[in-house]
Amino acid sequence: MDRPAFQKLALEHLRKNRPGDVFVSDEDNFQIVARRADDMEHIVGLANYHAEYEHAEPAARAKVLDRLLAGLDIIDSGESLDELRPLLVPRIRPRRYYAFDTPRTAAQLGSGKAAPRIPSHVVLAEHLGVGVAIDRPERIEYIYDTSRFGVPDEELHAIALANMKRMSKADGWKELKPGLYVGHWNDDYAVERMLVPEVFASLTVKGDPVVFAPGAEVSFVAGADDDPMLRLAFGLATERMKEPRGLIDYAFVLRGGKWELFEPPTELGAELGSRLAMHIADVYALQREELAAKHEDDPDAPFVANVMGIGSEDGGLVATLASWAKDVRTWLPRTVLLGMGAPEDGELVMVTWADAVELAGDCLRKVEGLYPPRWETVRFPDDATFAKLKERALDPSGPRRPARSPPRRRRAAAVRCPRRCRPSRSPRPRSSATSSSRPWSPRSSRTC
Fold first, then answer.
1. Exposure winner among 126, 127, 269, 356, fewest CB in 10 A?
2. Residue numbers of the domain that contains 242
3. Is the peptide bond prior to 399 cis by the omega test (within 30 degrees of 0)?
4. Number of separate domains in the chain
5. How far does Cα 206 stand from its chain's mean position?
6. Are residues 57 and 5 in the same domain?
7. Rounded distance between C-alpha atoms, residue 305 and residue 324, angstroms
Protein backbone atom coordinates (compact mmCIF):
# COMPACT_ATOMS: atom_id res chain seq x y z
CA MET A 1 0.00 0.00 0.00
CA ASP A 2 1.47 3.37 -0.99
CA ARG A 3 1.60 6.41 1.30
CA PRO A 4 -1.54 8.23 0.04
CA ALA A 5 -3.62 5.08 0.40
CA PHE A 6 -2.32 4.40 3.91
CA GLN A 7 -2.87 8.01 4.94
CA LYS A 8 -6.47 7.79 3.78
CA LEU A 9 -6.93 4.50 5.62
CA ALA A 10 -5.44 5.90 8.83
CA LEU A 11 -7.58 9.04 8.63
CA GLU A 12 -10.76 7.01 8.18
CA HIS A 13 -9.82 4.77 11.12
CA LEU A 14 -9.21 7.71 13.42
CA ARG A 15 -12.40 9.51 12.46
CA LYS A 16 -14.49 6.37 12.83
CA ASN A 17 -13.17 5.54 16.30
CA ARG A 18 -12.84 9.08 17.70
CA PRO A 19 -15.84 11.01 16.35
CA GLY A 20 -15.42 13.77 18.94
CA ASP A 21 -11.92 14.67 17.73
CA VAL A 22 -10.86 16.75 14.74
CA PHE A 23 -8.30 15.37 12.28
CA VAL A 24 -6.50 17.18 9.47
CA SER A 25 -4.51 15.26 6.88
CA ASP A 26 -1.07 16.72 6.13
CA GLU A 27 0.04 14.90 2.97
CA ASP A 28 3.23 16.94 2.50
CA ASN A 29 4.68 15.73 5.79
CA PHE A 30 2.98 12.31 5.80
CA GLN A 31 1.20 12.96 9.07
CA ILE A 32 -2.19 13.65 10.58
CA VAL A 33 -2.77 16.54 12.95
CA ALA A 34 -5.29 15.79 15.69
CA ARG A 35 -7.16 17.98 18.14
CA ARG A 36 -8.77 15.88 20.82
CA ALA A 37 -12.07 16.71 22.41
CA ASP A 38 -10.21 18.08 25.44
CA ASP A 39 -8.38 20.52 23.10
CA MET A 40 -5.07 18.69 23.33
CA GLU A 41 -3.23 18.68 20.01
CA HIS A 42 -1.03 15.95 18.58
CA ILE A 43 0.87 15.33 15.38
CA VAL A 44 0.58 11.70 14.33
CA GLY A 45 3.60 10.80 12.21
CA LEU A 46 2.65 7.98 9.86
CA ALA A 47 6.10 6.83 8.72
CA ASN A 48 6.51 4.26 11.51
CA TYR A 49 3.01 2.90 11.19
CA HIS A 50 3.14 2.67 7.41
CA ALA A 51 6.42 0.73 7.48
CA GLU A 52 5.07 -1.61 10.16
CA TYR A 53 1.81 -2.04 8.24
CA GLU A 54 3.78 -2.95 5.11
CA HIS A 55 5.82 -5.59 6.97
CA ALA A 56 2.94 -7.05 8.99
CA GLU A 57 1.04 -10.17 8.05
CA PRO A 58 -2.45 -9.36 6.74
CA ALA A 59 -4.06 -10.67 9.92
CA ALA A 60 -1.91 -8.38 12.08
CA ARG A 61 -2.45 -5.14 10.18
CA ALA A 62 -5.54 -4.15 12.14
CA LYS A 63 -3.38 -4.09 15.28
CA VAL A 64 -1.12 -1.50 13.65
CA LEU A 65 -4.07 0.83 13.16
CA ASP A 66 -5.17 0.19 16.74
CA ARG A 67 -1.73 1.20 18.04
CA LEU A 68 -1.96 4.38 15.98
CA LEU A 69 -5.30 5.08 17.63
CA ALA A 70 -3.94 4.33 21.10
CA GLY A 71 -1.14 6.82 20.58
CA LEU A 72 -3.62 9.66 21.01
CA ASP A 73 -4.33 8.57 24.59
CA ILE A 74 -0.82 9.09 25.96
CA ILE A 75 -0.30 12.76 25.25
CA ASP A 76 0.70 14.95 28.20
CA SER A 77 0.48 11.87 30.40
CA GLY A 78 1.40 13.80 33.53
CA GLU A 79 4.84 12.26 33.94
CA SER A 80 7.09 14.23 36.22
CA LEU A 81 10.30 15.86 35.11
CA ASP A 82 12.30 13.27 37.07
CA GLU A 83 10.55 10.49 35.16
CA LEU A 84 11.19 12.12 31.79
CA ARG A 85 14.67 13.49 32.51
CA PRO A 86 16.62 10.66 30.78
CA LEU A 87 14.29 10.80 27.77
CA LEU A 88 14.58 14.52 26.98
CA VAL A 89 16.47 15.33 23.78
CA PRO A 90 17.00 18.49 21.72
CA ARG A 91 15.31 18.56 18.34
CA ILE A 92 16.77 20.73 15.57
CA ARG A 93 14.50 21.57 12.68
CA PRO A 94 14.35 24.44 10.19
CA ARG A 95 13.12 27.50 12.03
CA ARG A 96 10.09 27.78 9.80
CA TYR A 97 8.85 24.45 11.17
CA TYR A 98 8.49 25.91 14.65
CA ALA A 99 7.56 29.48 13.70
CA PHE A 100 5.18 28.91 10.79
CA ASP A 101 4.48 25.33 9.72
CA THR A 102 3.32 23.98 13.08
CA PRO A 103 1.06 26.97 13.89
CA ARG A 104 -0.36 26.92 10.38
CA THR A 105 -1.18 23.23 10.60
CA ALA A 106 -2.70 23.69 14.05
CA ALA A 107 -4.85 26.53 12.74
CA GLN A 108 -6.43 24.12 10.27
CA LEU A 109 -7.97 22.31 13.21
CA GLY A 110 -10.38 25.13 13.93
CA SER A 111 -10.67 27.55 16.80
CA GLY A 112 -11.29 25.23 19.77
CA LYS A 113 -11.02 26.34 23.38
CA ALA A 114 -7.23 26.46 23.38
CA ALA A 115 -5.03 28.54 21.15
CA PRO A 116 -2.88 26.62 18.64
CA ARG A 117 0.27 25.50 20.40
CA ILE A 118 3.84 25.88 19.20
CA PRO A 119 6.60 23.60 20.50
CA SER A 120 8.92 25.44 22.87
CA HIS A 121 12.11 26.30 20.97
CA VAL A 122 15.11 28.60 20.71
CA VAL A 123 16.82 29.94 17.60
CA LEU A 124 20.11 28.54 16.29
CA ALA A 125 22.12 30.20 13.51
CA GLU A 126 19.07 32.31 12.53
CA HIS A 127 17.52 29.65 10.28
CA LEU A 128 17.23 26.73 12.68
CA GLY A 129 15.08 26.11 15.73
CA VAL A 130 15.93 23.88 18.69
CA GLY A 131 13.03 22.32 20.54
CA VAL A 132 12.86 19.79 23.35
CA ALA A 133 11.29 16.40 22.77
CA ILE A 134 10.65 13.15 24.59
CA ASP A 135 12.50 10.24 22.99
CA ARG A 136 9.92 7.51 23.49
CA PRO A 137 10.51 4.01 22.09
CA GLU A 138 7.68 4.33 19.59
CA ARG A 139 7.99 7.99 18.60
CA ILE A 140 9.59 11.35 19.28
CA GLU A 141 7.13 13.61 21.09
CA TYR A 142 7.64 17.36 21.03
CA ILE A 143 7.03 19.23 24.28
CA TYR A 144 4.52 22.04 23.88
CA ASP A 145 3.54 23.00 27.40
CA THR A 146 6.74 23.38 29.42
CA SER A 147 4.97 25.08 32.33
CA ARG A 148 3.75 21.78 33.75
CA PHE A 149 7.31 20.92 34.82
CA GLY A 150 7.63 24.00 37.01
CA VAL A 151 11.13 24.86 35.78
CA PRO A 152 12.40 27.45 33.27
CA ASP A 153 12.66 26.41 29.64
CA GLU A 154 16.41 26.90 29.89
CA GLU A 155 16.61 24.06 32.39
CA LEU A 156 14.76 21.69 30.05
CA HIS A 157 17.12 22.60 27.22
CA ALA A 158 20.09 22.03 29.53
CA ILE A 159 18.82 18.56 30.48
CA ALA A 160 18.23 17.68 26.81
CA LEU A 161 21.70 18.91 25.88
CA ALA A 162 23.31 16.86 28.65
CA ASN A 163 21.56 13.77 27.30
CA MET A 164 22.75 14.58 23.78
CA LYS A 165 26.34 14.87 25.01
CA ARG A 166 25.99 11.48 26.64
CA MET A 167 24.63 10.03 23.39
CA SER A 168 27.56 11.53 21.47
CA LYS A 169 30.42 9.90 23.36
CA ALA A 170 30.79 7.22 20.72
CA ASP A 171 32.60 8.29 17.58
CA GLY A 172 30.02 8.41 14.81
CA TRP A 173 32.35 9.77 12.11
CA LYS A 174 33.63 7.84 9.11
CA GLU A 175 36.13 9.39 6.73
CA LEU A 176 34.97 8.95 3.15
CA LYS A 177 37.93 10.78 1.63
CA PRO A 178 40.67 12.88 3.20
CA GLY A 179 38.80 15.91 4.52
CA LEU A 180 35.30 14.49 3.95
CA TYR A 181 33.31 12.80 6.72
CA VAL A 182 29.92 11.19 7.16
CA GLY A 183 28.32 11.33 10.61
CA HIS A 184 26.18 8.38 11.64
CA TRP A 185 25.33 7.46 15.25
CA ASN A 186 22.61 4.90 14.49
CA ASP A 187 19.92 7.25 15.72
CA ASP A 188 17.84 10.12 14.39
CA TYR A 189 19.91 12.91 15.93
CA ALA A 190 22.77 13.50 13.51
CA VAL A 191 21.97 17.19 13.10
CA GLU A 192 21.59 17.62 16.87
CA ARG A 193 25.33 16.98 17.19
CA MET A 194 25.69 20.60 16.10
CA LEU A 195 24.85 21.38 19.73
CA VAL A 196 27.96 19.49 20.84
CA PRO A 197 30.78 21.38 19.07
CA GLU A 198 33.47 19.17 20.63
CA VAL A 199 32.18 16.32 18.44
CA PHE A 200 33.69 18.13 15.45
CA ALA A 201 37.08 18.72 17.08
CA SER A 202 38.45 15.34 16.02
CA LEU A 203 37.84 15.93 12.31
CA THR A 204 40.82 16.72 10.10
CA VAL A 205 39.44 19.30 7.70
CA LYS A 206 40.82 22.38 5.98
CA GLY A 207 39.35 25.40 7.70
CA ASP A 208 36.26 25.59 9.86
CA PRO A 209 33.94 22.56 9.74
CA VAL A 210 30.93 22.91 7.44
CA VAL A 211 28.00 20.60 8.11
CA PHE A 212 25.35 19.44 5.67
CA ALA A 213 22.34 17.82 7.40
CA PRO A 214 20.08 16.42 4.67
CA GLY A 215 18.46 13.79 6.91
CA ALA A 216 17.81 13.15 10.58
CA GLU A 217 20.07 10.10 10.53
CA VAL A 218 23.11 11.43 8.69
CA SER A 219 25.33 14.47 8.22
CA PHE A 220 28.30 15.28 6.01
CA VAL A 221 31.22 17.50 6.97
CA ALA A 222 34.05 19.15 5.01
CA GLY A 223 36.34 22.10 5.62
CA ALA A 224 35.36 25.65 4.67
CA ASP A 225 38.67 26.04 2.79
CA ASP A 226 38.46 22.76 0.89
CA ASP A 227 36.35 23.43 -2.19
CA PRO A 228 36.67 19.92 -3.74
CA MET A 229 35.50 18.20 -0.55
CA LEU A 230 32.77 20.79 -0.02
CA ARG A 231 31.43 19.97 -3.46
CA LEU A 232 31.49 16.26 -2.72
CA ALA A 233 29.67 16.83 0.56
CA PHE A 234 27.18 19.01 -1.26
CA GLY A 235 26.66 16.24 -3.82
CA LEU A 236 26.03 13.64 -1.14
CA ALA A 237 23.61 15.93 0.64
CA THR A 238 21.80 16.63 -2.61
CA GLU A 239 21.36 12.94 -3.29
CA ARG A 240 20.04 12.37 0.22
CA MET A 241 17.58 15.26 -0.16
CA LYS A 242 16.07 13.43 -3.11
CA GLU A 243 15.04 10.63 -0.78
CA PRO A 244 11.96 10.84 1.46
CA ARG A 245 12.04 13.01 4.57
CA GLY A 246 14.75 15.38 3.48
CA LEU A 247 15.66 17.76 6.27
CA ILE A 248 17.95 20.74 5.55
CA ASP A 249 18.93 21.78 2.03
CA TYR A 250 21.67 24.27 2.91
CA ALA A 251 24.76 24.29 5.14
CA PHE A 252 26.21 25.77 8.33
CA VAL A 253 29.77 26.53 9.42
CA LEU A 254 31.23 26.47 12.93
CA ARG A 255 33.26 29.67 13.42
CA GLY A 256 34.67 30.60 16.79
CA GLY A 257 32.46 28.07 18.54
CA LYS A 258 29.30 29.47 16.96
CA TRP A 259 27.23 28.12 14.07
CA GLU A 260 26.25 30.41 11.22
CA LEU A 261 24.86 30.06 7.73
CA PHE A 262 27.53 28.94 5.26
CA GLU A 263 27.35 31.12 2.18
CA PRO A 264 30.84 31.75 0.76
CA PRO A 265 31.36 34.11 -2.22
CA THR A 266 31.60 31.19 -4.63
CA GLU A 267 29.35 29.35 -7.05
CA LEU A 268 28.62 26.80 -4.33
CA GLY A 269 27.74 29.59 -1.89
CA ALA A 270 25.33 31.09 -4.41
CA GLU A 271 23.64 27.72 -4.88
CA LEU A 272 23.31 27.18 -1.14
CA GLY A 273 21.88 30.68 -0.74
CA SER A 274 19.39 29.99 -3.53
CA ARG A 275 18.25 26.82 -1.80
CA LEU A 276 17.63 28.75 1.39
CA ALA A 277 15.65 31.33 -0.57
CA MET A 278 13.50 28.62 -2.14
CA HIS A 279 13.00 27.00 1.25
CA ILE A 280 11.51 30.11 2.89
CA ALA A 281 9.76 31.55 -0.17
CA ASP A 282 6.18 30.63 0.71
CA VAL A 283 6.59 31.81 4.31
CA TYR A 284 7.07 35.36 3.08
CA ALA A 285 3.45 35.49 1.93
CA LEU A 286 2.26 34.84 5.49
CA GLN A 287 4.74 37.35 6.87
CA ARG A 288 3.65 39.96 4.36
CA GLU A 289 0.03 39.66 5.51
CA GLU A 290 1.09 40.09 9.13
CA LEU A 291 3.22 43.14 8.33
CA ALA A 292 0.45 44.70 6.24
CA ALA A 293 -1.97 44.36 9.15
CA LYS A 294 0.57 45.69 11.62
CA HIS A 295 1.38 48.82 9.57
CA GLU A 296 -2.07 49.38 8.11
CA ASP A 297 -2.47 52.82 9.72
CA ASP A 298 1.14 53.94 9.23
CA PRO A 299 1.43 56.31 6.23
CA ASP A 300 5.23 56.06 6.40
CA ALA A 301 5.37 52.29 6.36
CA PRO A 302 7.74 50.77 3.79
CA PHE A 303 6.56 48.78 0.82
CA VAL A 304 6.73 45.09 1.77
CA ALA A 305 7.86 43.34 -1.38
CA ASN A 306 6.26 40.07 -2.42
CA VAL A 307 8.00 36.93 -3.60
CA MET A 308 7.28 35.89 -7.17
CA GLY A 309 8.03 32.52 -8.70
CA ILE A 310 9.78 31.92 -12.01
CA GLY A 311 8.71 28.73 -13.74
CA SER A 312 10.29 26.49 -16.33
CA GLU A 313 8.66 25.26 -19.52
CA ASP A 314 7.19 22.26 -17.70
CA GLY A 315 5.83 24.36 -14.85
CA GLY A 316 8.54 23.61 -12.30
CA LEU A 317 9.69 26.35 -9.95
CA VAL A 318 13.27 27.28 -10.81
CA ALA A 319 13.79 30.58 -8.98
CA THR A 320 12.16 33.29 -6.89
CA LEU A 321 12.16 37.00 -7.66
CA ALA A 322 11.51 40.26 -5.81
CA SER A 323 11.45 43.85 -7.07
CA TRP A 324 13.78 46.62 -5.90
CA ALA A 325 12.38 49.81 -7.40
CA LYS A 326 14.27 53.07 -7.44
CA ASP A 327 13.08 55.73 -4.97
CA VAL A 328 10.73 53.28 -3.19
CA ARG A 329 11.56 52.43 0.41
CA THR A 330 11.17 48.67 0.38
CA TRP A 331 11.56 45.72 2.71
CA LEU A 332 13.05 43.07 0.45
CA PRO A 333 12.66 39.33 1.03
CA ARG A 334 15.52 36.92 0.46
CA THR A 335 15.07 35.63 -3.07
CA VAL A 336 17.15 33.96 -5.75
CA LEU A 337 16.86 36.94 -8.09
CA LEU A 338 16.18 40.66 -7.83
CA GLY A 339 14.60 42.90 -10.44
CA MET A 340 16.15 46.35 -10.05
CA GLY A 341 15.60 49.72 -11.64
CA ALA A 342 13.14 52.47 -12.47
CA PRO A 343 10.35 51.07 -14.67
CA GLU A 344 9.34 54.54 -15.87
CA ASP A 345 12.85 55.09 -17.25
CA GLY A 346 13.11 51.68 -18.83
CA GLU A 347 16.12 50.91 -16.65
CA LEU A 348 15.44 47.38 -15.47
CA VAL A 349 17.92 44.62 -14.75
CA MET A 350 17.62 41.17 -13.26
CA VAL A 351 20.54 40.04 -11.10
CA THR A 352 21.21 37.30 -8.61
CA TRP A 353 20.81 38.04 -4.93
CA ALA A 354 24.49 37.27 -4.42
CA ASP A 355 25.55 39.84 -7.03
CA ALA A 356 23.21 42.47 -5.61
CA VAL A 357 24.60 42.01 -2.10
CA GLU A 358 28.19 41.95 -3.32
CA LEU A 359 27.93 45.15 -5.36
CA ALA A 360 25.18 47.08 -3.58
CA GLY A 361 25.10 45.59 -0.10
CA ASP A 362 25.81 49.00 1.45
CA CYS A 363 22.44 50.14 0.10
CA LEU A 364 20.64 47.55 2.23
CA ARG A 365 20.04 47.30 5.96
CA LYS A 366 18.76 44.16 7.61
CA VAL A 367 15.46 44.72 9.41
CA GLU A 368 15.71 43.72 13.05
CA GLY A 369 13.32 41.24 14.60
CA LEU A 370 11.91 39.66 11.45
CA TYR A 371 11.92 36.06 10.33
CA PRO A 372 12.19 35.18 7.57
CA PRO A 373 14.68 38.03 7.18
CA ARG A 374 14.09 41.18 5.17
CA TRP A 375 16.37 44.01 4.12
CA GLU A 376 15.38 47.66 3.89
CA THR A 377 16.50 49.60 0.84
CA VAL A 378 18.10 52.66 2.40
CA ARG A 379 19.02 54.04 -1.03
CA PHE A 380 19.30 52.94 -4.64
CA PRO A 381 22.74 52.13 -6.08
CA ASP A 382 24.55 55.04 -7.70
CA ASP A 383 25.13 55.11 -11.48
CA ALA A 384 28.56 53.48 -11.29
CA THR A 385 27.30 50.61 -9.15
CA PHE A 386 24.19 50.18 -11.27
CA ALA A 387 26.40 49.96 -14.36
CA LYS A 388 28.33 47.11 -12.73
CA LEU A 389 25.05 45.37 -11.91
CA LYS A 390 23.98 45.72 -15.54
CA GLU A 391 27.18 43.95 -16.57
CA ARG A 392 26.10 40.95 -14.52
CA ALA A 393 22.44 41.13 -15.50
CA LEU A 394 20.68 37.93 -16.49
CA ASP A 395 18.68 37.55 -19.66
CA PRO A 396 15.03 37.83 -18.60
CA SER A 397 13.68 36.96 -22.04
CA GLY A 398 13.44 33.23 -21.36
CA PRO A 399 10.00 31.66 -20.98
CA ARG A 400 8.39 32.10 -17.56
CA ARG A 401 5.31 30.22 -16.61
CA PRO A 402 3.35 29.67 -13.40
CA ALA A 403 5.33 27.22 -11.30
CA ARG A 404 3.74 24.18 -9.74
CA SER A 405 6.53 22.04 -8.34
CA PRO A 406 9.89 22.27 -6.53
CA PRO A 407 13.06 22.87 -8.54
CA ARG A 408 14.76 19.98 -10.16
CA ARG A 409 18.14 19.30 -8.69
CA ARG A 410 21.19 18.65 -10.79
CA ARG A 411 22.66 15.24 -10.27
CA ALA A 412 25.71 15.58 -8.10
CA ALA A 413 28.99 13.72 -7.94
CA ALA A 414 28.50 10.12 -6.94
CA VAL A 415 30.44 9.33 -3.77
CA ARG A 416 29.06 6.36 -1.87
CA CYS A 417 29.34 5.86 1.84
CA PRO A 418 31.69 2.92 2.48
CA ARG A 419 28.99 1.46 4.72
CA ARG A 420 26.83 1.19 1.60
CA CYS A 421 24.29 3.34 3.33
CA ARG A 422 20.83 3.36 1.91
CA PRO A 423 17.70 5.25 2.87
CA SER A 424 15.39 3.81 5.45
CA ARG A 425 12.28 2.15 4.12
CA SER A 426 10.26 4.54 6.20
CA PRO A 427 8.59 7.15 4.00
CA ARG A 428 9.95 10.61 4.70
CA PRO A 429 8.29 13.81 3.54
CA ARG A 430 10.34 15.88 1.15
CA SER A 431 9.57 19.11 2.95
CA SER A 432 11.85 20.31 5.71
CA ALA A 433 9.05 20.39 8.23
CA THR A 434 9.12 16.87 9.58
CA SER A 435 6.70 14.76 11.51
CA SER A 436 7.12 13.88 15.14
CA SER A 437 7.87 10.23 14.51
CA ARG A 438 11.03 8.34 13.81
CA PRO A 439 11.85 5.67 11.19
CA TRP A 440 10.24 2.38 11.99
CA SER A 441 13.37 0.26 11.76
CA PRO A 442 15.18 -0.37 15.06
CA ARG A 443 18.23 1.72 15.90
CA SER A 444 20.60 -1.19 15.54
CA SER A 445 19.61 -1.67 11.91
CA ARG A 446 19.03 1.89 10.79
CA THR A 447 21.04 2.98 7.80
CA CYS A 448 21.97 6.41 6.53
1. 126
2. 172-262
3. no
4. 4
5. 27
6. yes
7. 8
Q: Please choose, from the candidates 445, 407, 404, the residue with its C-alpha nearest in 3D space to the C-alpha of residue 424.
A: 445
Q: Are 51 and 425 in contact (CB under 8 A)?
A: yes
Q: Which residues are CB-neighbours of 96 under 8 A, at least 6 positions away?
A: 279, 280, 283, 372, 432, 433
CB–CB of 47/426 below 8 Å?
yes
Each residue's pLDDT tens digit, 267-320: 999 999 999 999 999 999 999 999 999 998 998 999 999 999 988 777 778 999
Task: Single out the residue in 219, 243, 262 at which a domain terminates.
Answer: 262
Q: Are residues 159 and 190 in the same domain?
A: no
> Residues 197, 257: contact at Cβ < 8 Å?
yes
Q: How far is CA 314 from the centre of its chain?
A: 26
Strands of the 209-215 sheet, one edge to the other? 173-177, 180-183, 218-223, 209-215, 251-255, 258-261
Residues 16 and 90 grouped into a single domain: no
Per-residue pLDDT band at 100 (split at 50, 70, 90): confident
